[in-house]
Amino acid sequence: MKNPYCPIKAEITDIIDETPTIKTFVLKPEEPVSFKTGQFVELAVPGLGEAPFTPSSNPKMEDRIELTIMNVGNVTSRLHQMKRGEILGIRGPYGKGYPLKDFEGKEILIVGGGVGLAPLRSLVLALLNDIDRYKKVVIKYGARSPKDIVYKSELKKWTVNKNVELELTVDAGDSSWKGNVGLITMLLKRDMGVDIEKSVAIVCGPPIMMKFTTFKLVELGYEDKNMHLSMENNMSCGIGKCGHCRIGPYYACKDGPVFTYDKIKTYHTIWE
Amino acid sequence: MEQKFLKKGNLEKFVNAIAEVYDLYYIQKGKGDKLHIVKYLNELKNPVIGEVRPLEPLKNFFFYAREKVVGGYEKSGEVKDIEGKPLCILGMKNCDLSAFDILDYVFTQGDFKDPFYIRNRGCNLIIAADCTKAIDTCFCHALGRKHYPEGYYDILMSELHDGYLVEGKTEKGNKFLDKNEALLNKTTQKHIEERDHIRKHAGIGVEENIREHKMPQYTEYKDIIKENLESEIWKREAETCVECGSCNVICPTCHCFYLVDVSQKDDKELRYKIWDSCMYKRFARVAGGANPRSRLWMRLRNRFEKKFDFFPEINGYYACTGCGRCISGCPAKIDIRRVLKDLVAEKKAKVK
Fold first, then answer.
1. Which architecture characterizes domain A8-94 according to CATH?
2. Contacts of residue A33 in chain B, CB cutoff 8 Å?
């Protein structure tokens, strides 16, 4: 019987510095890990530990997988010290992924905060693969400061396609920053470029940003079932056995990690 | 298979026959009359077939407290068969057996299965036994469970004053009994009557406990957590909790674990699956520090939510079998019967 707890080896083939605290790791697993955008993998630093990450790369890319990782914990701080050629463990993909079929023919509002743009980058690239299927993609992204913006050189490329719009904001600017200054919720308003009734919203970011973005979208008139939220829970085994990531009757790892708001809004601890 | 009678004098021989084929564990009465599961080493010492459940839950044998699950990252990642003899556990009671309603569901159902549990569960002989009495923490009936085995066993033994009624349930169990037919005698109507009498009296003991503690029946548990999310009950009960996790380790249905990666000299890709406790602060915490259950009372509430809300909703069973171990194991004297009683009462008061 196959052992679901056993990773396969993955070599770090490249490391891209995104911000002072965020790096993108390009990995070459010993056999392809094909995922649907929004699904996650468990990444292990051998002998140290494992943590869940949603790939930030195009799901179409077969032999490589990219993970954009912020240095916040035990596993990630060690990852940030690692170099090209080193070996990690990877298993997955797990979870449900974004229901791209449901997005077809619709306007798509994507709201990202900080390193939360990582899974959304994968989503944007997946949407760009078949952009004609979607009416419009509007991206709102907020970072703490200009130097905390991820994928700086790539963001402009997304908007080459006329169906894709992008607006940025930073919590605090600097001398060179000429863009918006303020929280992400500032960019969310009735005239933000999407027809709210005919669109879906996809949100990923730190817990506090998720909370206020969700409330703002509700206020703007988004129906709960049209809001796809990435829930950050302690997904340890990834396969619905270990018990850590429970939200009400669900496990984030197997029923999520992306949930529509109607499914989870009644469970009391989602915003803690 | 038809019932047989095993004389007390033949127990040792019967056990020897088991031990020839299986690695045998049985219940032993130790110091202070405490019942423990022990390994059989050529002779039975103070064996207990009837009475009640031992201190240790049965889950240990299938869902190990600590199990190596990775010994090196590999593409095939196959789980190897157990080496040596299969396992036989003698004298298991229904509060442990009915926990398989939960454990089997968790580890053997769904898109992903746990091959370690499946392997451990597959190669064994479970010999169940009736409870012949109740101790003061027994409350299985409140959960709709019986004090004698209802399933999940190969052979059933019901202790009588001079022997045991023995009955095979599975093919594996029947085969074993057929092979050892020479040790068994015919049963008489008297044996059956004696068993029924013992069952009845043990049952009365459980009922008396439930009455004494004014415990509500499981039919009244619906939404007792949902309706009492912010109840003072949680804060009151959590006040004395020391987060030791005893209630989790001795619970026959608690199944949470964490994966721990360790590095040894030449082995850098080791991973263990180790029992976890939802009462620990770090249980639900994510990297960066956010914690959906940062307060102790929230974790206590979570424990009840998982048992009395989550499992009934997803698989139709309460994840409590009424074994009462958490009552005697808790150094803070948190009594699950009191918590359930108060939750039901508070819900009723609200609805009125």
1. Beta Barrel (2.40)
2. none
Amino acid at B239: E
As a whole number of angstroms, the distance between CA B96 and CA B61 comes to 12
The more confidently predicted of residues B76 and B157 is: B157
Hey, CA dihedral for B174, B175, B176, B178, is it positive or negative?
Answer: positive
Q: Which of A67, A211, A244 to mutate to test the interface with B (most CBs of B within 10 A)?
A: A244
Question: For the segment B301-326, what is each residue's pLDDT rounded down to a tens digit?
Answer: 999 999 999 999 999 999 999 999 99
Helices B11-21 & B171-179, crossing angle to 10 degrees? 120
Q: Where are the domains of chain A?
A: 8-94, 100-230
The HSE-up count of residue B264 (CA atoms within 13 Å, CB side) is 9
End-to-end CA distance of chain A: give it in Å, rounded: 39
Nearest to B210 by CA among B54, B336, B57, B328: B336
CATH of domain A100-230: 3.40.50.80
Chain A to chain B, count of Cβ pairs less than 8 Å apart? 139
Contact by Cβ (8 Å): B63, B107: yes
Question: Is the CB of residue A269 less than 8 Å away from at least one CB of chain B?
Answer: yes
Percentages helix, strand, coil for chain A (3-state, rounded to 5) are: 25, 30, 40
Chain B neighbors of A30, CB-CB under 8 A:
75
| Stretch 89-108 of chain A: residues touching chain B, C-beta under 8 Å | 89
> CB contact, 8 Å: A30 with chain B?
yes
Q: Which of A48, A89, A269 minimises the CB distance to B293? A: A269
List the 191-220 stretch of A: residues with Cβ below 8 A of B.
206-207
Instruction: Return residues 113-142 of B near A (CB < 8 Å).
Output: 113-116, 118-119
Binding-face residues of A in 53-82 toward B, CB within 8 A: 70, 72-76
Phi, psi of B70 (to 5 degrees): -140, 130
Q: In chain B, whose CA is at the least distance from the CA of A269? A: B292
Instruction: State pLDDT tens for residues A104-128.
Output: 999 999 999 999 999 999 999 999 9
**CA–CA–CA angle B2, B176, B113 (5° rounding):** 105
Q: pLDDT tens digit string along B94-134?
A: 999 999 999 999 999 999 999 999 999 988 999 999 999 99
Strands A164-170 and A250-251 come out as unpaired
Cα dihedral B140, B142, B144, B148, rounded to 10, equals 30
Q: Please give the residue that has the higher pLDDT: either A107 or A207.
A: A107
- Tell me the pTM: 0.94
- In terms of phi and psi (left: phi > 0; alpha: psi -120 to 50; beta: otherwise), the region of A117 is alpha
Selected residue of B68, B70, B226, B229 to mutate for chain A interface (largest A Cβ count, 10 A): B70
d(CA B246, nearest CA chain A) in Å: 17
Instruction: Name which of B21, B275, B341 is nearest A241 in CA terms.
Output: B275
Nearest CA in chain B to A267: B226
How many residues does this entry show for chain B? 352
